[in-house]
Amino acid sequence: MPMQNLKIAIQGIEGSNHHKVIRDYFEAETQIKACATFREVVYALVNNQVEASLMAIENSIAGSILPNYRLLIDANLQITQEFYLNISHNLVALPNQSLNDITQVKSHQMALHQCGNFFSKHPHIKLIEDVDTALPAKLIAKNQQKNLAALVPNGTAELFGLEVIQPNVQDTNTNETRFVLLKKPTQTENQDANKATLHFELKHEQGNLANLLTTMSELGMNLTKIQSIPIAHKQWNYAFIVDVRFKHIRDYKKLIRVLNASTEVIQTLGLYKSGRT
Amino acid sequence: MPMQNLKIAIQGIEGSNHHKVIRDYFEAETQIKACATFREVVYALVNNQVEASLMAIENSIAGSILPNYRLLIDANLQITQEFYLNISHNLVALPNQSLNDITQVKSHQMALHQCGNFFSKHPHIKLIEDVDTALPAKLIAKNQQKNLAALVPNGTAELFGLEVIQPNVQDTNTNETRFVLLKKPTQTENQDANKATLHFELKHEQGNLANLLTTMSELGMNLTKIQSIPIAHKQWNYAFIVDVRFKHIRDYKKLIRVLNASTEVIQTLGLYKSGRT
């Protein structure tokens, strides 16, 4: 499906995984606004500096990025699409070095974590956490820093004139990240939607969550995910975030009617077409 | 309860929130091993460099730190105690500066996030993510760097010769982090336990989770938390992590018997006394 030509806020610079989603799924003319933090990504949209924001929300190994759900809830934005990106971590450094020359690797905590097996086998490499994946690669090139490596997706080494020392150092090849495209809420309902992300607080009665899941199951819905998330103003009380798949939007509407009756707060964070067939 | 004199791995340096838990709850003679990453905290224990590890697992605003559950599951360690620390973020910098002099603040993503309201009101301050909270404070002191601030808990400014520019800049005063003490598994069962953290994979039948929650409710148990977490080797299949409170350990044993029958994999991540009364 061709995408309209938007200006989109992303986390990270050119060469980051967010940027790879733009390269893979959006038109070549798409403009990006590179943001240092997920908070900036969200508030660039809130403050109308962009028409949409792209944000990683979940990884198939590390799980949900809960702080990003918090941002999404608080900013009252809507998930309008989702994209799955296969994550490959290539160990990259200045040209003409071998793995033995590398003494340090600088990357994001999640990237380092996803390559745990590889680094366990190469204990001479010291792991240094950074807040970004592509930025350490860019700085290695800029400062011509030897013995230091970064972990970047396919296509990024070339962007900075670096060399791939070892491709695909991730623990498993089934490592995908799910990204969501955020927009401001509109009145229009996506009639093709077959997935929803919901956020709700339950009335405090024992067994309430069990009853709700039973209802979903009776409606033939597939609960693909559930997270409890704290309620900021009620310490150690939890709200829930669920992803549900359904066949037709009328089933979603039935569920919303049930939720309206059994929950304190109900907020649809997105009604969209699944990125999976 | 006085703690035995252990060597404990913590994330962060002296002055960090982990270190504050040690100062508040453990004996003065307790030795710490400061680790740069949570991964190091866990593997210091796995590799017998320490007798226990202290790890943040959840915050009352930001929610669960899911990657830390992943580490805990993979390393096969046990939660033996939990501690709640009230989180105060003091904005600290070199002495004799006012808020107007501060142009940048460097801290961990979660700390910056928890002070979002304050920084929205002071847009002249640029937020820079770091992998640590106490380390930027230490470096400000070491490099005598003006115009730069850090966010640290009570008692840390004094440690580094910095001054509190503005105390308690967090959004809400009900901001607590839950820390868990990890040890290697033993055969001994804590008979005072009234809380368990469980990890299980459900057999894939619609409505299974609903049935399980109904069982917990019938056993009079209080489900305090539920998280779905990916199964690393089965892409986009989910396991669940739950915290349950119970009155007597025999109820926990009943639940385990039910889980043994209805789950594929069941792992007790901890059986311990709640840090709450």
Strand content of chain A: 35-45%
Query: In terms of structural class, how would the helical and strand content of chain A be classed?
Result: alpha/beta
What multimeric state do the chains show?
A: homodimer
Q: How many separate structural domains of chain A? A: 3
Q: Rg of chain A from C-alpha positions?
A: 21 Å
Largest interface: A-B, 53 and 53 residues
Give the SSE order of chain A as H and E letters. Answer: EHEHEEHEEEHHEHEHEEEHEEHE
| Stretches with pLDDT under 50, minimum 5 residues of chain A | none
What is the rounded distance between the termini of chain A?
14 Å
Kindly provide the name of the CATH class of the largest domain in chain A.
Answer: Alpha Beta
Annotated CATH homologous superfamily of the largest domain in chain A: Periplasmic binding protein-like II
Keywords (chains A, B): Amino-acid biosynthesis, Aromatic amino acid biosynthesis, Lyase, Phenylalanine biosynthesis
Pathway (chains A, B): Amino-acid biosynthesis; L-phenylalanine biosynthesis; phenylpyruvate from prephenate: step 1/1
Catalytic activity (chains A, B): prephenate + H(+) = 3-phenylpyruvate + CO2 + H2O
Pfam family, one (chains A, B): PDT
